[in-house]
Write a structure and sequence with these properties.
The chain has 462 residues and is an alpha/beta fold. Helix content is 27%, strand content 13%. It has twelve helices and twelve strands. The strands form three sheets. It has an eight-stranded mixed β-sheet with strand order 5-11-12-10-9-6-7-8, sandwiched between helices. Strands 1-2 form a two-stranded antiparallel sheet. The chain has a two-stranded antiparallel sheet with strand order 3-4. It is globular.
C-alpha cells in the first residue's frame, strides 16, 4: 500500500506492513489513537491499560467506561470457593535436577509402590459419533482441525455410550474456549429422530449449555445458535471462583447437570471436579447421587430425585438450585501444572504415605510422558505464557530443569512420566468414588492425535 486510504489514518504500522485503517476527523492526518504522532500532548496512556491512549481532558469519563476497569463481580462469583485447602503447608519448589541421585531413587521407589496398589488400568476406548463424520471427511480441514474433530467425535461417543447425551439436561463445558464441544453436543441432539416425535416434544425436553471460560475469547460459536428450547450461556469467570448454585440459568428449570471439558489443563481439572460435585441444591446435602443409567438404554432420560421440600405441584423456581449431577466426561491435560492446594486426591496420597512434597515432584516428573523422547539438553520450543491457549492445545512442558540425565534413558523417563500421570489421576478416581461416582480412565484417541489422550469419565455408582 503506497499511501493511506482517503479519510483514513496516515500512520504506517510496521508490524502489519500497512497503514492504519481508522477513520480520522476532518482536517486531521492521524486517528484519535495515533494523534500523539502530530506532536500533540493531549493524549496520554490510559492508567488502567497503557496499551491504549485517551484524551487528557476526557480521562475521567474514559475511566468510567474503559474495558480494563474493575467491574462488579457477578452473583455467581465467590472468592476461592473451589480452591480446596493445603492445610497451611507451603513448599519450596525444587527442580528435579537439583535433587541427589539418592533422593530421585527414593521418589521412584515410592512412585512404583503407590502405582502397584492401584486396582485399575487405563483402557483403550477410541469412539466416534456420526454427527462429525461429514467434517472429518471434508478435505478442506487441515491436520490441526482434523485432530480436534477426532477428539470431539470421541468425546461425544463416550457421552453416548454412558447414556449422557440427551435432552432435558444441562451440559457445563469447563474451559470452553470457542465453545466447539458444546456446538457439537447441540448439533448431535438437534438431529435426533426421536426428538421429532410428538411424545418427546410434549415433555418439553429443553437443552441448556453453560460455557465457562476465564478469558475473553474471539470467534465464539455459541452465539450462532438460536434454536427454540435451547439455551446457550457463557460465563467469563475462573472455575476457582464459580458457584454453580448461584447461576441463574441453572436455577430456572432445575435440569440435571453433566460436566464436559476438552483439555482441562492441570489444576483446572481439580477445580472443575470441586465446582461440579460441590454443587448441592436445597435439601440435597448428604444424599446419594441418582442411580447410574444403563448403557444399553442411552435414550432413556433419568428422573431427578425429588427434593425434600418439593411438593407434587411444585416445579423449578428461582430458589430450586441446580439439578443432580448425572456424570462427567473430561479430557485431561498438563499434569505438571497441578497444585496440591487444589488437588482433589489429597486423601488418596496421604493414605499411601505420600504428601505435598512427593506430589510436587511427581507433577514435575509427569512432563516426561510427553517430552521424554526429547534429548535432555534440548531446550523446549519458545511459545506463549503458561496460561495461553494454543491452537493445537499441546501445552508447553516445564523448563528443562526437570530433565534428569545420566541414569535414565529417554524411554525410561517417558514411562515414569506416564506412571506419575496415572497416580495423580488415581487420586481423582478415588475422590469420585468417595462422592458416590464410578470413575474410569481411558485413552480416547491415539497418541498420534495428541499425547494428552487420557479421558476421565464418571457416572453415579449403581
Amino acid at each position: 500500500m503506497a499511501a493511506a486510504l482517503p479519510g483514513r489514518c496516515g500512520l504506517f504500522l510496521e508490524k502489519k506492513k500497512r497503514f492504519c485503517k481508522m477513520i480520522v476527523a476532518r482536517g486531521k492526518v492521524f486517528c484519535g489513537e495515533h494523534a500523539t504522532m502530530e506532536g500533540s500532548s493531549s493524549r496520554i496512556p490510559c492508567p488502567l491499560d497503557p496499551k491504549h491512549t485517551v484524551s487528557e481532558d476526557k480521562l475521567q469519563q474514559h475511566l468510567k467506561k474503559c474495558n480494563s476497569r474493575e467491574k462488579a463481580k457477578p452473583v455467581y462469583y465467590v472468592e476461592n470457593i473451589n480452591s480446596g485447602s493445603a492445610d497451611g503447608e507451603t513448599l519450596q519448589q525444587v527442580s528435579l535436577c537439583e535433587r541427589s541421585r539418592a533422593e530421585l531413587d527414593a521418589l521412584l521407589d515410592q512412585l512404583k509402590t503407590a502405582v502397584s496398589g492401584l486396582q485399575w488400568d487405563v483402557d483403550d476406548s477410541v469412539l466416534s459419533h456420526p454427527i462429525l463424520q461429514e467434517e472429518l471427511d471434508n478435505p478442506k480441514n487441515g491436520d490441526s482441525a482434523h485432530k480436534h474433530l477426532k477428539q470431539q467425535s470421541s468425546l461425544l461417543g463416550h457421552l453416548e455410550a454412558l447414556g449422557l447425551l440427551g435432552r432435558g439436561r444441562c451440559f457445563v463445558e469447563f474451559g470452553a474456549g470457542r465453545g466447539k464441544l458444546s456446538h457439537w453436543i447441540h448439533e448431535a441432539l438437534k438431529t435426533r429422530d426421536h426428538l421429532e416425535t410428538r411424545d418427546h416434544l410434549e415433555t418439553g425436553q429443553d437443552l441448556q449449555l453453560l460455557l465457562v471460560e476465564r478469558c475473553s475469547t474471539r470467534f465464539k460459536v455459541d452465539g450462532k445458535h438460536q434454536d427454540p428450547g435451547v439455551q446457550f450461556e457463557r460465563l467469563q469467570v475462573d472455575i476457582q471462583h464459580l458457584d454453580l448454585c448461584k447461576v441463574q440459568l441453572l436455577r430456572q428449570k432445575n435440569l440435571p447437570l453433566i460436566g464436559v471439558g476438552k483439555h482441562l489443563c492441570g489444576a483446572a481439572t481439580d477445580l472443575a471436579l470441586r465446582c461440579l460435585l460441590g454443587t448441592r441444591g436445597p435439601g440435597e446435602e448428604g444424599e446419594p447421587p441418582p442411580k447410574r443409567l444403563k448403557t444399553a438404554e442411552p435414550e432413556a432420560l433419568p428422573e431427578a430425585s425429588p427434593r425434600p421440600d418439593s411438593g407434587p405441584d411444585s416445579g423449578p423456581g428461582p430458589d430450586s438450585g441446580p439439578g443432580p449431577v448425572l456424570g462427567l466426561v473430561l479430557a485431561l491435560c498438563c499434569h505438571h501444572r497441578c497444585e496440591w492446594q487444589h488437588y482433589v486426591g489429597q486423601q488418596f496420597f496421604l493414605q499411601n504415605g505420600l504428601g505435598a512434597a512427593e506430589f510436587s515432584a511427581f507433577c514435575r516428573m509427569s512432563s516426561w510422558a510427553t517430552c521424554g523422547l526429547r534429548p535432555a539438553n534440548r531446550k523446549p520450543a519458545s511459545g506463549g505464557g503458561a496460561n495461553q491457549r494454543r491452537d493445537d492445545e499441546e501445552h508447553e512442558a516445564p523448563d528443562n530443569g526437570d530433565a534428569v540425565s545420566g541414569f535414565l534413558s529417554a524411554g525410561e523417563r517417558q514411562q515414569l512420566g506416564r506412571l506419575c500421570k496415572r497416580l495423580i489421576d488415581g487420586g481423582r478416581v478415588h475422590f469420585l468414588k468417595a462422592q458416590g461416582f464410578h470413575g474410569r480412565l481411558s485413552r480416547y484417541v491415539g497418541r498420534e492425535v495428541t499425547p494428552e489422550n487420557v479421558l476421565l469419565t464418571a457416572v453415579p455408582s449403581s
